[in-house]
Amino acid sequence: MSAREAEAPPGPRPPRALRQRLLSWYGAHRRDLPWRRTRDPYAIWISEAMLQQTRVETVVPYYERFLGRFPDVATLARADLEDVLGVWTGLGYYSRARNLHRAARQMVDQHAGRLPDDPAALRALPGIGRYTAGAVASIAFDRPEPIVDGNVARVLARVHGIRDEIDGALARRRLWDEAARLVEGPDPGALNQALMELGATLCTPRRPRCSSCPLTRSCVAHRAGDPESLPRKAPRSRARSVEAVAGLVLRRGRVLAVRRPEQGLLAGLWELPGGDVSPAEPPRDAIVRTLAQRVGLRVSQAEPLGAVEHVFTHLRLRLHVFRCAGVQGRVRLRDLAEHRWLPDAALRALPQGGPMRKALALALGDAP
Question: Which of 197, 196, 186, 173 is nearest to 144 (CA)?
Answer without folding.
Answer: 186
